[in-house]
Amino acid sequence: MARVTASASPFRCTECGWTTSKWVGRCAECQQWGTVIESAEKTGITRSIRPTAVVGDRVARPIGEIEVESATHRPSGIAEFDRVLGGGIVPGAAVLLSGEPGVGKSTLLLEVAARAAATGSRVLYVSAEESAGQVRMRAERTGALHPQLYLAAETDLATVLGQVDAVSPDLLIVDSVQTVSSGEIDGFAGGPSQVREVASALIRLAKQRGLPVLLVGHVTKDGSIAGPRLLEHLVDVVCTFDGDRQTSLRFIRALKNRFGPVDEVGCFEMSGDGIVEVSDPSGLFMSRNSKAVSGTCVTIAMEGRRALPVEVQALVVKTSAPNPRRVVSGVDSARVAMVLAVLERRAGIGLSGLDVYVSTVGGIRLTEPGADLAIALAVASAARDVPVGHDVIAVGEISLAGEIRPVSMASQRSGEARRLGFRKVLDHSTGSAESALRLALG
């Protein structure tokens, strides 16, 4: 029989468990704001926990006797979403989808709801942020109307659970978990205690009924999911939906997935009619010039396990300013500065008196070092006004010694380059950046 002794500290941090005798606005351990709450009254009396008799189906069984048919993936109807989830939505799974405001989370899940309803499943979409009329207008615009798709605008947890009992859905979508509150818990909607209670109740419902639940989550200014960290531990899958507001391209990635890999990426494009899958985004990040133009070079970037061809463009201009400008868009400014230094010192290309502009096509952001060689070739091509051939692609990291270092998933990158018709792949086998320049520019 286990024995538990209660602590004398009446206030506790919901993030890290730090305790204090008086309330403070910021936890002294994890430095989080608004996470210190008053715990239940402690008496200091030692009490006993009596074990509960386990009977029926709850008795532990050998792992080989557990049935797995009920925990198989079921396609959602959106291939790019299923790719990230590992093949589809698992019954009883809790999926958390987070993203910046206006990125398209509600539009994506409304499309998921419509596709599921079209297959005969009964779907309940609970909107706690918008009225039912607003969601109805969006569904009409995106073609998501279906008689099997039920809509409710509720912010009370008890009412949401009542709607589930009344509709008996095969899929539940809650938008969002931070705007639903429980009358049994003190605090405002979106607070740590409310988010924890709402999420726990919905996840408990999912496990008991085998009902898949998709939750929308807000993010803070630094991009992390709002609410207690416990929320990410409770759910089975954590996905992020992001993209540049200046472009229509959107990516969905899995940060946690108990039913599949976490290195897959789904690609979507926002349009006036809703959100559209992009199964082959190979042409989104490349220009359509019919003839070779100086200052451009193509590389293969990896988004998860997906290989994407990306065109890097550079422009070099003479300047009379004492400090030449270095302007970048879509690439890391620190890596561009390092590549420029290597070009000047190792390849003999003078750039100290020139303005250098480097950008990617399509608004994609390159953060991996595998784009170093493409940046170097684009800048050298612009400086010499000699175009890189249409059949040349560059993949590799450049060291300070001027050597080209290998990158991860090299075989997959090379295979994608050949599939797209690039016959000459410049990589670490070339030897050095100077050798790559000679091969690409002559």
Written description of the protein model:
The chain is of the alpha/beta class. It folds into three domains: 1-57, no CATH class; 73-279, P-loop containing nucleotide triphosphate hydrolases (Rossmann fold), CATH 3.40.50.300; 283-441, Ribosomal Protein S5, domain 2. Helix content is 25%, strand content 24%. The protein contains ten helices and 22 strands. A nine-stranded mixed β-sheet has the order 8-7-9-10-6-11-12-13-14, sandwiched between helices. Strand 12 (249-257) and strand 13 (265-271) form a beta hairpin. The radius of gyration is 27 Å and the shape is elongated. The N and C termini lie far apart (81 Å). One of its GO terms (biological process) is recombinational repair. InterPro entries: AAA+_ATPase, DNA_repair_RadA, P-loop_NTPase, RecA_ATP-bd, Ribosomal_Su5_D2-typ_SF, Ribsml_uS5_D2-typ_fold_subgr, Rubredoxin_2. Residues 70-219 form the RecA family profile domain.
Q: Looking across the biggest beta sheet, what order are the strands in?
A: 8-7-9-10-6-11-12-13-14
Distance between the first and last residues' Cα: 81 Å
CATH homologous superfamily grouping of the largest domain: P-loop containing nucleotide triphosphate hydrolases
Tell me, what is the CATH class of the largest domain?
Alpha Beta
Family: Belongs to the RecA family. RadA subfamily.
Organism: Amnibacterium flavum
Motif (RadA KNRFG motif): 256-260
Function: Plays a role in repairing double-strand DNA breaks, probably involving stabilizing or processing branched DNA or blocked replication forks.
